[in-house]
């Protein structure tokens, strides 16, 4: 037995280490925080004692966040609370809350036993894949606010999105769509099975051996049963074909509808005129398998797309202010209550309250309106807004929803890519595809007419059904989806599928220098050291800007005292200026700071009230692995260096660029744009790699703009790719991968085409029955999807992408 | 052989009964989430606190 207590004790509730100086305990158990102790006391001794039994390990338990008791006060407002309820009859309400913390079986166990924790909760049901909790609440016993507070104290704080009411209604309509699909499949399956059963006499003995009255009865019953299939289960296809025809375009549902109608009327005619037994089993089988195929497709889509949203996060960081210090923190480590400093050009990562500073927010990212909104301390600033002005301090009132930011980013593309028409590939294919198929079916019909109308109809219908352009339409989305996901796991964030496609067409790459190829290091004062006061002036100004040069100067003039500033302005390619302690301070290039020719050489100049008082040089340190990267890229692309700085670091750059590659210095932002436009005009497809904020114009001009984010929290919508500084070396592999994806898509097209040719051959030859054709159709879609996704995964490995 | 008429009608009625049950199940959202029930069955029942019963022998 050891005499001393172990140095680190795990928390009895969540398993994390307890702090050694604060003893938080209850009933002889130690806890790491008051939150865990609260959960313990809530659960202990009550009916949920079992939570602490062996079956649920401590690491599965959630660590509750202990926050502000007034946090959910807004739920007392009946209007807001109403938006959360799905149904209410005054006292009893039903609502669904999104709890992203749900991650395992213990969560389900705990949450579904919520009724035992409070009388007001009548029922609680977890929807695990959607990470939602459905609650039937008796509001006379427990208010909505009380419910949310209870869940939060257990560690499951709901994500309440009140302003996107549209989102809730979208997911509800997906729900009803899925439900109706289930119903249709049920009906179609019921009819299919029964009509097949009724056709047994025909199958087993041939239609001649069945007594005529019984045959009549069977026929009539089959017709009656088939009506719900035609009118209800299959009506989606009819509606879609009708809409297509009304718009004078043949979509892929038209052949299916023609086939189904042909089967039905032919069968009715045969049965009523006693010339045969018809194909009603084929008809319901056809609809049944088509609907089943659709269900599988939808499930696959939602599984794949859910992953994308879930994993959408950026390598962006924000400046968090804690205990007097400012540190760079990744976006996903932020939580409600954190104080952040948002500098000029940076984005507000989540809804927050403005604490200090003058907010000039540009919400063009969110609303499209570029007029800035003026905000005072106390006002609310919304996620996606960009600060234009001095730095402001904000306090987050919402967790960062990175899927929201991703959506903002990719929806931006809707505005900029206006030139592409929105017709899907399937509709395009249908233009040629459907008339061709109809023609072939017609030819097959006439060809087989000599053998009898039954055979002819069989062949024609099989032809109409087996031809499936949907495989063509599925290859690209799935291949791109898989590609985007894999790239995200390799820490390269591509805006959308179109950007990924353009990536494979690149011919030229243009690099920015400072901050892209070089690391940001503290500036070195050239000449004598600045006085304490001047350093404070410089620091007070520079900290408001996220430009690499400003950050370098802030680092060089370290200290904790800062002055408030006024009239901050940042000139891209020039510098920054403001009134600091009532003096005009300018920091920037030689021209910007109005330096006379006699002043010493340097990269960044500082002037106070018109007098140059300081010169800094920015020592350049190449990023690790840059040499290998440029070596690799050189093989397939033409490289260029465009830098806004002077050519003082020429020799250093010459170590990574060859003599034949243009290296241009002292380029202004507009000259950068012109250069890139020039490349585009000469037919080259350019990729620009630069700083998200300061090279915004050039990034927009290039066909692909890659924003390198290094301790920054801002990117322009013009960027198609966002990467971390560490991911720069993965660029060659990523480009290789994008080319391979293109190959996979072409292979998918070839696969689908050969399937169609084979299928059509058999159908026209009369060897295919409509039911078999109906099975083949969804099968081909699923095969193509599986092919596209698997091939892309394989290609990611072979192109050397470093996937986490 | 005309008994088959009765049989056909009966079997269709029974099948229709199952269809109605299916429709009811879909409408009460039983198909909405098919993953959680799999985990739910593994949870233990809360321990019984009635004394004496556990000692009963079968």
Report on the structure:
Chain A is 45% helix and 17% strand. Chain A has 24 helices and 30 strands. In chain A, the strands form 7 sheets. Chain A has a 7-stranded mixed sheet with strand order 16-30-29-28-17-26-27, with helices on both faces. A 6-stranded antiparallel sheet of chain A has the order 8-7-9-15-10-13, with no helix packed on it. In chain A, helix 8 packs across helix 9 (253-272). The longest helix of chain A has 34 residues, at 165-198. Chain A is globular. Chain B is mainly α. Chain B has 2 helices and no strands. Chain B is elongated, with a radius of gyration of 22 Å.
User: How far apart lie the N and C ends of chain B?
Assistant: 53 Å
Work out the strand percent of chain A. Answer: 15-25%
Query: Would you identify the regions of chain A where 5 or more consecutive residues have pLDDT less than 50?
Result: 1-6, 163-170, 304-313, 413-424
Choose one word for the global shape of chain B: elongated
The strand count of chain B comes to: 0
Q: What's the main sheet of chain A like?
A: 7 strands, mixed
Q: Spell the H/E element sequence of chain B.
A: HH
Give me some keywords for this one.
heterodimer; A: 804 residues; alpha+beta; 7-stranded mixed sheet; 24 helices; 17% strand; disordered N terminus; B: 58 residues; mainly alpha; 2 helices; 52% helix; elongated
């Amino acid at each position: 037995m050891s005499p001393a207590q172990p140095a680190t004790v795990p928390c009895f509730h969540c398993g994390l280490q307890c702090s050694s100086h604060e003893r938080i305990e209850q009933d002889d158990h130690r806890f790491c925080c008051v939150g865990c102790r609260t959960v313990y006391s809530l659960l202990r001794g009550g009916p949920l004692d079992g939570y602490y039994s062996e079956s649920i390990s401590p690491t599965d338990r959630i660590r509750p966040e202990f926050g502000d008791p007034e946090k959910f006060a807004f739920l007392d407002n009946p209007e807001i609370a109403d938006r959360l309820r799905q149904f209410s009859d005054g006292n009893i309400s039903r609502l669904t809350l999104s709890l992203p913390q749900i991650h395992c079986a213990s969560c389900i166990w705990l949450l579904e036993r919520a009724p035992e924790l409070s009388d007001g909760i009548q029922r609680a049901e977890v929807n695990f894949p959607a990470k939602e909790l459905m609650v039937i609440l008796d509001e006379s016993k427990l208010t909505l606010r009380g419910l949310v507070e209870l869940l939060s104290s257990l560690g499951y704080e709901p994500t309440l999105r009140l302003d996107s009411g549209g989102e809730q209604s979208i997911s509800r309509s997906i729900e009803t769509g899925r439900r109706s699909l289930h119903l249709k499949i049920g009906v179609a399956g019921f009819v299919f099975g029964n009509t097949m059963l009724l056709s047994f006499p025909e199958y087993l003995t041939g239609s001649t051996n069945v007594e005529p009255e019984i045959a009549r009865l069977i026929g009539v019953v089959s017709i009656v049963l088939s009506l719900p299939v035609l009118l209800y289960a299959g009506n989606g296809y009819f509606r879609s074909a009708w809409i297509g025809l009304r718009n004078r375009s043949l979509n892929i549902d038209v052949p299916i509808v023609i086939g189904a109608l042909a089967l039905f009327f032919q069968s009715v005619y045969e049965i009523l005129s006693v010339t045969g037994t018809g194909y009603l089993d084929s008809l319901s089988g056809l609809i049944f398998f088509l609907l089943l195929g659709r269900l599988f497709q939808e499930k696959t889509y939602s599984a794949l797309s859910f992953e994308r949203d879930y994993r959408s996060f950026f390598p962006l960081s924000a400046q968090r202010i804690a205990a007097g210090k400012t540190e760079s923190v990744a976006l996903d480590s932020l939580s409600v209550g954190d104080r952040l400093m948002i500098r000029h050009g940076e984005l507000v990562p989540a809804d927050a309250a403005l604490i200090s500073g003058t907010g000039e927010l540009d919400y063009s990212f969110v609303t499209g309106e570029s007029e800035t909104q003026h905000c005072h301390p106390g006002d609310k600033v919304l996620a996606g807004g960009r600060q234009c002005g001095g730095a402001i301090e904000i306090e987050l009132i919402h967790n960062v929803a990175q899927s929201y930011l991703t959506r903002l980013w990719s929806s931006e593309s809707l505005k900029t890519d206006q030139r592409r028409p929105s017709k899907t590939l399937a509709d395009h294919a249908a233009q040629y595809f459907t008339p061709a198929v109809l023609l072939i079916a017609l030819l097959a019909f006439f060809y087989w007419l000599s053998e009898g109308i039954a055979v002819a109809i069989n062949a024609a219908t099989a032809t109409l059904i087996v031809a499936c352009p949907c495989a063509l339409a599925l290859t690209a989305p799935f291949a791109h989806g898989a590609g985007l996901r894999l790239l995200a796991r390799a820490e390269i964030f591509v805006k959308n599928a179109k950007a990924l496609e353009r990536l494979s067409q690149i011919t030229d790459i243009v690099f920015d220098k400072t901050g892209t190829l070089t690391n940001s290091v503290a500036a070195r004062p050239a000449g004598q050291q600045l006085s304490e006061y001047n350093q404070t002036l410089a620091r007070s100004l520079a900290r408001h800007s996220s430009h690499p040069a400003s950050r370098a100067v802030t680092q060089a003039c370290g200290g904790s005292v800062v002055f408030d500033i006024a009239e901050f302005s940042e000139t891209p390619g020039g510098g920054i200026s403001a009134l600091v302690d009532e003096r005009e301070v300018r920091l920037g290039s030689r021209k910007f700071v109005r330096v006379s020719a006699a002043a010493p050489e340097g990269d960044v100049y500082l002037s106070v009230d018109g007098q140059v008082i300081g010169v800094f040089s920015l020592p350049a340190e190449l990023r690790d692995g840059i040499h290998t990267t440029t070596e690799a890229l050189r093989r397939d692309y033409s490289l260029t260096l465009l830098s806004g700085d002077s050519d003082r670091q020429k020799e250093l750059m010459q170590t990574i660029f060859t003599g034949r590659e243009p290296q241009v210095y002292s380029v202004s932002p507009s000259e950068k744009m012109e250069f890139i436009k020039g490349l585009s005009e000469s037919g080259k497809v350019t990729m620009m790699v630069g700083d998200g904020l300061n090279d915004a114009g050039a990034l927009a001009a290039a066909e692909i703009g890659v924003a390198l984010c290094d301790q920054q929290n801002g990117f322009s919508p013009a960027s198609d790719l966002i990467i971390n500084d560490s991911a720069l070396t993965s660029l060659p592999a990523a480009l290789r991968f994008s080319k391979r994806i293109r190959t996979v898509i072409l292979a998918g097209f070839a696969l689908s085409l050969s399937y169609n040719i084979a299928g059509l051959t058999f159908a026209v030859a009369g060897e295919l029955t409509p039911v078999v054709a109906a099975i083949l159709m969804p099968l081909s879609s699923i095969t193509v999807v599986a092919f596209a996704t698997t091939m892309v995964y394989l290609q990611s490995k072979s192109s050397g992408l470093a996937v986490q | 052989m005309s008994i088959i008429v009765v049989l056909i009608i009966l079997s269709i009625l029974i099948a229709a009964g199952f269809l109605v049950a299916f429709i009811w199940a879909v409408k009460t959202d039983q198909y909405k989430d098919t993953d959680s029930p799999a985990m739910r069955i593994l949870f233990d029942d809360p321990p019984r606190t009635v004394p004496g019963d556990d000692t009963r022998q079968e």
